[in-house]
Structure formats: C-alpha cells, structure tokens
Amino acid sequence: MPNIDILILAIVQGITEFLPISSSGHLILVPKLFCWPDQGLTLDVAAHVGTLVAVLVYFWRDVANMGAGLIKLARGKRDNRARLVWLLLVASVPALAIGFALDKWAGDALRDTRIIAATLIGFGILLYICDRVGLTVRRIEHMTAGSALAIGIFQCIAFIPGTSRSGITMTMARLLGYERKEAARFSFLLSIPTIAAAGLYKGYQLVRGGDFAEMERAAMMAGFSAIAGFLAIAFMMYWLRRANFAPFVIYRIILGAVLLWSIYGGGWQNVCS
C-alpha cells in the first residue's frame, strides 16, 4: 500500500473514531471507493494504537487521576478517583464478550455496503431523537453502575459497521440525561479499554502470524491516526460545549442516502470496473 494511501486511511481512522459518523463504515468504504486492497492486520493494529494514544494524551488528567485512585485502592485506602475505573470496566464487559464472539463466528459477514448505508441513516436519526428528548442534567460524577452497563450494552451495536461506537454510546448517554460534553467524555474514556483490547487481540494475531514487514508504515499509520484522533477529540469537546449533534446526523443521512442510491442505481458495482 503506497504511503499516501496509508496517510489517508490514518486520517480517516483518527477522525471518524471519535466523531459520531462510524470509523468502521468509513474504513470499509474508502478502500472500496478508491479500489485499494485491504490494509492488512499490521496497519489495522497501528491505527488502533494511534487512536488509543490520542485518547490517553487528551484525557491525561482523567487517566492520571484513575491511576492515582487505583494505587490508593491497592494500598487499602478508598479513593473516589478509582470509581471511574470501575464504571469503565462495567461498561466494557458486554463489548469485550460480544466482540470476541463476533470475530470468532461472524467474520466479515456484516461488512456489507447496504448494512452500512442503513445503519448510518437509522442510528443517525436515533442520535438526533435521543439528543432532542434527553435532559442535560447529569455528569459522569452522577453515573451509576446501571447507567454504565446500559451504555456498554448499547456499545455492542457498534460492531455493526456504520453504527459508530462513539455515536451509539453518546446516544445512550444522552437518553439517560447526561450533558453532551459529559456523554462525549465518557464515550471517549470508554474507548480506552475497548481500543486497547482490540489492539492487543489484533497484535496477538499479528505476532502469531509472524508478519513484521510493515513496521515502518505501521509507525506512520499510528502517528497520523494519533494526531488526527487528538484533533477530532478536541474539536468534538469544543463543539458540544456550544452546539448539538445535528451536523453529524445530517452528514450520516446524506452519506447513507448516497450509498443507497449508488447501490441500487448500479453505480457502486461499477466503481472499480
């Protein structure tokens, strides 16, 4: 894969991982649109590492506080800072279980352009509705284990390409009454165990396969996806302090409609012919 292709995919991964427009959907669509080969496991792992770095850097205070809380807890002292770790773990369990099962038995069965189009539109509309009806009265400090679990269960839907992990978790958080920026903050922090688990699992597959030939390009993929991811998080947190999710919903509906028109109009099948 040429370096320019890697650069484009890294930027797409970094941006769409944290905007509610579906990274998995875009990473399937972009190579199909430009007739590129699959980027391969090495670059896939690198992209995950890059987006994980972006979250850790942007939310370094939250990460440091959670670490300090865990250290105190290990010493037998109760610390409220460790409570966020517990909430993230509770929210992560459903996705970790479902993700492993889907990877083992479903494979690429869901990587269908028609599914991506439908989920882009359907879950975009759901995000809009939940954002409109949801109150803005709760912060992460008010979150219970039940709320975290509900968000975590919704996160499992994101294994369907086109859904958006960040989008579906923010949808549930807004339905539960969390402020927009707090919904985004929890969603992004929740990506830490989720992306780390996915990266470790894919990394294990990479090591087991013994394919280390793409390390230089993998470093490029990780670096650019980290930069793009950091900028996407910063933009999203800035935007949600002042506005709502409407522009992202509009983008999802337009993209989904264009895909459906391309598929059923016959244009999509002829893109690479």
List the SSEs and their pairings.
Blueprint: H1 3-18, H2 23-34, H3 40-58, H4 60-74, H5 83-105, H6 113-133, H7 145-155, H8 165-175, H9 180-209, H10 215-240, H11 246-264
Helix pairs in contact: 1-2, 1-3, 1-10, 3-9, 3-10, 5-7, 5-9, 6-8, 6-11, 7-8, 8-9, 9-10
Percent in helix: over 70%
SSE string, helices as H and strands as E: HHHHHHHHHHH
How many DSSP H or I helices?
A: 11
> Beta-strand level of the residues, as a percent range?
under 5%
Major β-sheet profile: none
Low-confidence region ranges: none
Q: Kindly name the structural category.
A: mainly alpha
**Overall outline:** globular
N-C termini distance = 20 Å
Work out the radius of gyration: 19 Å
Question: Based on DSSP secondary structure assignment, what is the total number of beta strands?
Answer: 0
Can you give the mean pLDDT? 89
Model description:
The protein is an all-alpha fold. 74% of the residues lie in helices and 0% in strands. It contains eleven helices and no strands. It is globular, with a radius of gyration of 19 Å.
Structural features:
273 residues, mainly alpha, 74% helix, 0% strand, globular
Could you write a compact summary of the structure shown?
With 273 residues, the protein is mainly α.
